[in-house]
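Retro notes (design track)

What went well: tokenization of the new backbones is finally stable.
What didn't: we kept losing track of which sequence belonged to which structure.
Fix going forward: every design gets posted as structure first, then sequence, in one message. First example under the new rule, 561 residues:
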């Protein structure tokens, strides 16, 4: 029986909750109605709460408020996709409800759950019933009711979960799309799995077993490099205890950039951690002592490692210091540099594929965050991209409906003026960039022109079905070619050429003046040229352009203007 939640218990509850959804993330993904291989709900929610696990494992929170605050902060920055953002909002509100508390009673925790729901509803522009919002709202309501008569937190959370599952079963009837597919809401199911994991922690149950690949450290890919191709030989990592909390590392950063590359500096008030590739690691270590006391160092010769690997020999490394490198990488996330403003306006786009990246950069984008259909970038990744742009106002083009909310979460995390243009597709983002007046007097003028231009372009996409599904009258089989028109299912086929012809015929009816075909990484140039000919034949009066997008998963992204 638990009548109080402490900081230590809350930490275990989050660890259990994360393990519970990670163990079931594929089952959550399978609930997604649309069979497109997109950034799925289970994956996004699992990765989002996983950021809190990473942070919590580094500390032993002395109070409940400390544990809850750390969890909320990590979730906010690690939020991926709409489901991840909503999950972060639920825990942000929970954290606010537990503010200042060393421990919490059943009533305290129930009230905090309800505050989490309020935070989520306020942040969602058009809250839809039959979603995780419905499930969390009714679960929190039941928790409050149960806490009026019960002091045992376990019992209250158990009652909350039972009510949540009853609400989840009703999502099939509340949401027409779910009703057609005959499934419950994936986000709601994921949230309840997390709550079940938290309850299991209260009961002292063991963590669920999760078999996943261990995260990989940022190292050179020796298999892809020869010794001659390595410019800076020594992979150097070290920790320095600062001589003063407010000491500036910018001169040291400039020095390291002059003697090497691949530089990362993560810092807090007490210490800083450095990762750099250089030919003179001793000089780097000597220079570092101007800023504090050297504590730990790791130096590996990447040239000899490459030679050993090529010869099939054991590759020498300092395995006993790998934890230092891991600490560096986690420190990098919180300590990224904010570029000083050198101009009024900057632009950041989200896309996947070198070809698409080049298009945005050629149109004037200052940076590109890798992500999109196959992997939704986290709020932290977008924030790093925003802060790296030396501009007063930064316009962000998410180019995916499932990334817009994550981008909007950056608005309270950066000192820059951030404007999110609600582009839902790459063609919309490209069109928006083409309508930028870089000399406009005010950011509102640019935002208005970019947003207005979104409606001038239509988007079609061709991919494959990730799983069997019955959707909107279509009997979809795993592996079928699948076409989307403005985000809605256009049709499926076992023949890619036949599906393209149907799309081309539909495009001719729209009487577009310009069609652009961006072909993906799995499409050969001669196949792409054949696709262009199909569209040109169906639309003889329209200019049809073919460009290499290099995007994964989507064979073609088609823009119609």
């Amino acid at each position: 029986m638990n009548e109080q939640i402490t900081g230590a218990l809350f930490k275990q509850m989050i660890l259990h909750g994360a393990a519970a959804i990670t163990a079931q993330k594929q089952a959550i993904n399978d609930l997604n109605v649309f069979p497109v291989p997109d950034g799925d709900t289970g994956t996004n929610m699992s990765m989002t709460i996983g950021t809190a696990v990473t942070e919590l494992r580094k500390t032993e929170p002395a109070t409940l408020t400390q544990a809850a605050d750390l969890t909320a902060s990590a979730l906010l920055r690690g939020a991926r996709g709409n489901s991840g953002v909503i999950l972060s909002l639920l825990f942000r509100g929970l954290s606010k409800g537990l503010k200042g508390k060393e421990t919490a009673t059943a009533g305290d925790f129930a009230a905090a759950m309800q505050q989490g729901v309020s935070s989520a509803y306020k942040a969602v522009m058009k809250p839809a019933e039959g979603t995780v919002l419905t499930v969390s709202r009714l679960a929190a309501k039941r928790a409050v009711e149960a806490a009026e008569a019960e002091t045992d937190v376990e019992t209250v959370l158990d009652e909350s979960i039972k009510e949540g599952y009853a609400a989840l079963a009703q999502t099939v009837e509340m949401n027409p799309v779910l009703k057609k597919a005959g499934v419950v809401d994936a986000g709601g199911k994921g949230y309840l799995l997390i709550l079940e994991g938290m309850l299991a922690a209260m009961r002292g149950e063991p963590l669920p077993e999760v078999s996943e690949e261990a995260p990989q450290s940022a190292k050179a890919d020796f298999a892809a490099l020869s010794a001659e191709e390595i410019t800076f030989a020594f992979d150097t990592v070290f920790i320095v205890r600062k001589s003063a909390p407010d000491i500036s590392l910018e001169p040291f950063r400039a020095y390291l950039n002059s003697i090497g590359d691949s530089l990362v500096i993560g810092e807090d008030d007490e210490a800083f951690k450095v990762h750099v590739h250089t030919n003179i690691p001793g000089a780097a270590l000597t220079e570092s002592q101007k800023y504090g006391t050297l504590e730990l160092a790791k130096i590996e010769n990447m040239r000899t490692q490459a030679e050993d690997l090529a010869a099939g020999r054991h590759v020498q490394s300092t395995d006993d210091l790998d934890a230092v490198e891991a600490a560096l990488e986690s420190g990098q996330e919180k300590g990224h540099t904010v570029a000083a403003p050198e101009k009024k306006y900057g632009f950041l786009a989200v896309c996947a594929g070198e070809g698409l990246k080049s298009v945005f950069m050629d149109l004037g984008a200052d940076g590109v965050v890798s992500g999109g259909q196959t992997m939704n970038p986290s709020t932290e990744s977008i924030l790093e991209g925003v802060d790296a742009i030396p501009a007063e106002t930064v316009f962000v083009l998410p180019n995916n409906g499932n990334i817009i909310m994550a981008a909007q979460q950056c608005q309270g995390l950066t000192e820059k003026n951030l404007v999110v243009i609600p582009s839902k597709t790459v063609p919309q983002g490209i069109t928006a960039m083409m309508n930028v007046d870089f000399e406009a007097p005010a950011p509102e003028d640019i935002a208005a022109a970019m947003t207005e231009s979104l409606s001038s372009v239509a988007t079609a996409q061709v991919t494959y079905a990730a799983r069997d599904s019955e959707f909107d009258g279509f009997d979809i089989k795993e592996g079928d070619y699948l076409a989307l028109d403005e985000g809605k299912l256009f049709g499926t086929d076992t023949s890619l050429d036949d599906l393209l012809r149907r799309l081309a015929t539909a495009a001719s009816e729209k009487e577009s003046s310009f069609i652009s075909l961006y072909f993906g990484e799995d499409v050969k140039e001669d196949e792409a040229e054949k696709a262009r000919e199909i569209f040109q034949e169906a639309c003889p009066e329209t200019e049809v352009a073919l460009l290499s997008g290099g995007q994964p998963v989507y064979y073609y992204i088609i823009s119609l203007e």
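Added context from the reviewer: The two ends are 64 Å apart (CA to CA).
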